[in-house]
User: Fold this.
Amino acid sequence: MMMYPYIKLGPRDGVLLISVLIMLVLTLVFKWSVWEFLLSVIAVIISFLAGSMKPNKKKVLAFMKK
Assistant:
C-alpha cells in the first residue's frame, strides 16, 4: 500500500535515497565540507544512472549477423 500514490517511487529510488542518506551521515561524522558532500552525491547519482543503462541488443545482433 502506497502512502502517496502520486509519487511513484520504486525500490531503485529507495536504494538511491538510502545511499544519499549514507553520504549525509558520513559528511556529519567525518566533518566533510559541503563541496565534498555534493561531489560524492553527484558521483552516486551518476553511477546509479550508468548502472541503469541497457545496451540496445538489436544493434548488437545486427552487427554480429553481418
